Amino acid sequence: MSLEDAKTQVDLAFTRKDRRGLAFENAFGGATSFLRRTYSKDIASADLVVTGVPFDQAVTHRPGTRFGPRAIREASTLQPYDPPYGWDGFDPLGEFEIVDYGDMPFDYANVAGVPALIEAHIKTIINQGPATITLGGDHFITLPILRAYAAKYGPMSVIQFDAHSDLWADDDMSRIDHGTFMYKAVKLGLVDVTRSVQIGIRTECDDCLGMPYIDAREVHEKGAAYVVDKVKKIVGASPTYVTFDIDALDPAFAPGTGTPVWGGLASWQTAAILRDLAGINCVGGDVVEVSPPYDSGNVTAVAGAHVAMELCCLALWNKRKK
Fold first, then answer.
1. Which residues, listed in sequence order, are joined to residue 111 by a DSSP beta bridge?
2. Measured CA angle at 246 (ends 245, 252), to 5 deg
């Protein structure tokens, strides 16, 4: 959609006729769909679906990530004016149909029922063809999402950006805890640890269950190119899910999160790693743990929006026109 076309329409999230194209609405006005994409449940022709899961009742410390999807969407309104930088001219907004499916509804007072709802929500989307990029919410939401993906693809390769391994032992599969979701995902056979890797870790874990990791110091000392080369060798061509906990970033770059840990990744390191992962078989991803009540100047929401955009690029890169 051209700038001239935009002048004659308002709230492209509702009025856009062609779901492809950049957007030139004022960033400070209008409906805040992700990247000004169309809000719709009609995804028959969609290439990628963005959805929110505003659930934060599994946190161990500070709540507030229920407001994450809304904040990420608002921050994303700064981005759809140009193709994303650093992707060799790739324009996912112009070439592909990306739809904002809205947030998953659930009864906040029926916490035990939420995991099944998340799994069904994601299955409803991916079984129609599109990949999903999910805006969280706390990191627990990734467990039922992985259930949905594993049902379609088998045990997943997972690239997890995080300060924490989330591999602490918890054999009570009914417990809802963002710090043990990966332990359960591995134990349930949803994740193949031989084809998965964690990046940015900087907290102790007694037993990593064989999961390879690249801690934050290794990233700092050896650089983005080293990380990308190592990750690509691990995941290979396997269907890969990328889960990004915003606390992978140092609190200087993302203070608005529930369990911040110093010594994390810088924004520029993260951007370089995500962009150079282009070519992996990314079938979906999420951005979680953005907690606006603890944010400063919306910098965490902005970081989350940029990560989500990069994940969109990763999910669509192999389908682009070459």
1. none
2. 145
Q: Closest Cα partner for 172 from 160, 161, 188, 158?
A: 188
Q: Do residues 279 and 248 lie in contact, with contact meaning Cβ atoms separated by under 8 Å?
A: no
| Residue 282 DSSP SS3 | strand
What would you report as the CA-atom Rg of the chain, rounded to the nearest whole angstrom?
18
Q: How far is CA 319 from CA 73, 95, 315, in A?
A: 25, 10, 8
CATH superfamily of this structure's domain 3-319? Ureohydrolase domain (3.40.800.10)
Judge whether residue 4 has pLDDT over 70.
no
Residue 70's contacts (CB-CB under 8 Å, 6 or more residues apart) are 32, 52, 54, 292
> What is the per-residue pLDDT across 206-240, written as a single tens digit (0 to 9) for each?
999 999 999 999 999 999 999 999 999 999 999 99
Q: What is the pLDDT of residues 22-35, one digit of tens each?
A: 888 888 888 899 99
Quick: pLDDT tens for 34-93. 999 999 999 999 999 999 999 999 999 999 999 999 999 999 999 999 999 999 999 999
Domains in the chain: boundaries: 3-319
Q: What are the CA-CA distances from residue 143 to residues 135, 207, 305 (Å)?
A: 14, 19, 22
- For residue 60, count other CB atoms closer than 10 A to its CB: 13
Cα(267)–Cα(289) distance, rounded to whole angstroms?
Answer: 16
Would you state the pLDDT for residue 3?
56
Q: Which residues contact 118 (CB under 8 A, 6 or more apart)?
A: 53, 55, 104, 141, 144, 145, 148
